[in-house]
Amino acid sequence: MSQAGDNGNFLKLLADVVRAEGWTGLWRGNTANVIRVIPNKGVLMMCSDMYKAGVAAALPTINGASVSSIAGGLAGVTAVICTYPLELARTRMAYRIQDGSTQYNNLISTFRAVIASDGLLGLYSGVWATLLGVLPFEGIKFGLYDILKSALPRNSLDKLPPIWTLVAGALSGAIAHFLTYPLDTVRRRMQVSGAVGAAKYSNIFNCLQTIIKKEGWTALFYGLAPTMLRAIPGLGIHMFVYEIMKIALGLDN
Fold first, then answer.
1. Which Pfam family, an example, fits this chain (predicted)?
2. Domain boundary assignment for the chain
């Protein structure tokens, strides 16, 4: 909500949602998010590992964290292209923006409303802003993750205990979020652009200029605190589960 322009105290925004819609309002759009996150993270992690070999072969002069960073950025782009309509639906459902008389109150009605107003290509509205943000975000996250893993203590078998991957994932994700957060704000604004009740932006640069002109530079960081509160444990658990599954499947090396 803050990123869409509804700036305010985090706790006050929570209270406003609960007052208007009850506690279930805090999970608005979560069904679409869960449906999105399964293929998105699956494609992201699979492609990250797959792309490492290709990047290393194409760029033999680099190694380590640089390879992971480039592969992670490309994997992020691939995951967005494959799952973006679900990302758009999740965002519109979360803000409950209305398009005429149609509420975005579930996944099917959201798709119908978007297609009715903007056609099939409307499902990719704002995709360029998302790609612009995901490339550096995933690149920074995966690169830092490799650097932190190499710096953390290892066990007697020279293996990094999986619990430390939680720490590495949380720290790398937090830093990546902070450094790329303005791009994430533009992405959110572009995803709701043109819907009734939301500002209309013609392109990414128009969106950025309008935000700065009307709301100031600080508006690019609206919602940073709750994003960090969600992302730090979320990304830590994400990487922890990923490493645990690799060990369970015999893919750890």
1. Mito_carr
2. 10-248
Neighbours of 214 (CB within 10 A): 10
Longest dimension (CA), the chain: 63
Helix, strand, or coil here: 197? coil
Q: Is 29 exposed, middle or buried (0-12, 13-18, 19+ CB in 10 A)?
A: buried
Q: Taking Cα atoms as reference points, which of 78, 75, 104 lies closest to residue 91?
A: 104
Task: Specify the 3-state DSSP secondary structure of 242.
Answer: helix
**Residue 104 token pair:** 């975005």
Identify the DSSP state of 195.
Answer: S
**Beta carbons within 8 Å of 137's beta carbon, 6+ residues apart:** 76, 176, 177, 180, 183, 184
pLDDT tens digits, one per residue of 62-72: 888 999 999 99
Residue 205 and residue 203: Cα distance in Å, rounded?
6
Fold of 10-248: Mitochondrial carrier fold (1.50.40)
pLDDT of residue 166: 92
Mean pLDDT over the full length of the chain: 84
Per mean pLDDT, which of 83-87, 190-194, 224-228 is the most reliable?
Answer: 83-87
Q: What's the pLDDT band for 100 if we cut at 50, 70, 90?
A: very low
